Amino acid sequence: MLHLLRPDIKLNNIYELTGELLEAMNVTVLIxxxxxxxxxxxxxxxxxxxxxxxxxxxxxGVSLAxxxxxxxxxxxxxCKPLGIVHFWKSGKPxxxxxxxxxxxxxxxxxxxxxxxxxxxxxIIGAKRSGILAxxxxxxxxxxxxx
Length: 146
Ligand SMILES: [Mg+2]
Fold this sequence. Notes:
Layout: E1 9-10, H1 19-24, E2 29-32, H2 48-59, E3 63-67, H3 72-79, E4 85-87, H4 96-104, E5 112-116, H5 119-129, E6 132-135
Parallel strand pairs: 1-6, 2-3, 2-5, 3-4, 5-6
The structure holds magnesium ion.
């Protein structure tokens, strides 16, 4: 059980996870949590840094998908400018949506990683799915419903 709680990699923020690094690790699919990982709750659309980060991943052949437990409205609004695959109400730590995202982007367990701020949803979800689990500290305050 304890191994499910332990991230494989800990980073300070998403920007440390560059396209170059992912390419070197043979990761072609990156599943990212949205709230407090990519953006704070109050940020409805991606800022320039997030857009540049997504472009850098794409330039290195990494497909990015957002898998969020938040609602459709929130996730769609944020992902639309990025033009990336996204899933709402994903039910993490369930494997179902993580697996779906991985398959849709053509990844395997060996070539897919998940980055998120929460152990009980993101890290456990990634570990149960058998993919690389990367933890970042939350960008903002937690919410009760998380
Ligand atoms: Mg989060």
